[in-house]
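Re: that chain you flagged

S.,

Sorry for the slow reply, it's been a week of failed gels. I finally had a moment to sit down with the sequence you sent. For the record, here it is as I used it:
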Amino acid sequence: MSCLRPSSSTTKSSCFSPGHEPAVSICHGKQYVHKIDIYFQRCLRRGLPQRRSRQYEHGFAEHGTDINTQSLCYAWPLSGEHSEETLVIAFALAFILLFQGGQAVQPGVVTGQLRTIDGSPAIAVRVAAVSVPVATGNAVEADGPQYYTLGFSASTALTDKDGRYRLVNIPPGRYYIVAGAIGEATYYPAAADGSTATAVTVAPASTTANLDFKLLRRFGGKVSGRVKPNTNEEQVKATLLGGRLEELLDVPVTGDGSFEFGHVPPGTYLLGLFPRPPGLASVVVKVGDADVSGLEIVPPPTRAVTGRIVVQNGPLPHALLQFSTPQGYVDATIKPDGTFTTRLHAARHQVELGGMPVGYSVASIRLSSIDASKGFVVGNADVSGIVITVASPSRLPRVQGVITGLPAARLTSTRVEVTGPIIGSLETAAKQDGSFEFAAVIPGLYRLRLIQVPELAPINLLVAGWDTTKVQVVVPGR
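Prediction finished late last night. Pasting the structure tokens below so you have them in one place:
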């Protein structure tokens, strides 16, 4: 068995960046199972689309059964600290272009009937409208179906007792109508993969009816269950991963905590929730020809964990704070003042602070007077007073500037603010002669603004090296 590693030949980069792979080996037993599940949850949590890329086929065992995962979710290779935000911006721009023109574009509807191999109505089978990739329009045959990259599922539904389906709220565009899940799916009208499927064009405010087709494969039983106790949170989804599928299946959890995936191919799967509650271990589900019902997902109780991060010199750089166990991890948001609050389940948790620039490292982690660098235990009470100290370079660059075009009476009340590759922002007061200084910053791109001067738009400030950066801020005349 080989370790799970991104292929160097792929043109996309995994959503977990180099240097952030877990320190624990994922090539053994349960840790292997949970870590693969964690990677999918991490991609979903960051809002990245699932993309079928060059396949990773790694068999692994838990409870004496084999699970075969065939793909990981991928993001386009975007460099820099804000790669995920850039991806979100790209999607936002796409939607802006879609709805330009003064009037909102109305979505379309697709309906039809699905039948089994034997010709009877296919009941409770997932049907989805999957966008055709814009770049190619169709798969490149030379690549083969295993390299084919599908778009996103714009709409999904389960077939009813007559095998009929209705896909609603589909943005105008070209789509494949897919029954089942990628890896074991049937594409309208009768294709086993996207390279030979027929794309359907959905026009604004239209209904495309009578897209009837027949399954090419036999399905196993239905999978259903309940979350106990109910999370009472909106947009919680039950997820299913594994078998021969090449995508992560998800269905909403209803108000009473129940969920149903419909029929899925026979195989062994990992059942979980998204967003994943802290400490929730995946449930191994074996699906054959019979329905699998009565499954229970029981999130463990959690406790509040609070603390702060301090840096020895200068501002705190952007960083990723996580608390991990062999079964999973929990992200924590670092507030502008360096404090953090999260909720963790009862277990020993390891503190992980990564993503910082070269020259920065964790100097110490303490819980009151106790060394917590090797982890700390959460029991049946809240935990407070965690202090993470970050070591930084002893010499950091300065920023020196001067403001011109502003009357002396306004200069004395003007404060200069910069935001960039740091947690929060830095502020300093302008002197009477218009000069200002930031004694210690981190190299990178910043946005500089004069807080009390709204007529001046924020300007870009590049701190390119370790020497002093000088900047002149010119306030335009009224």
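What I noticed first: The radius of gyration is 26 Å.

Talk soon,
D.
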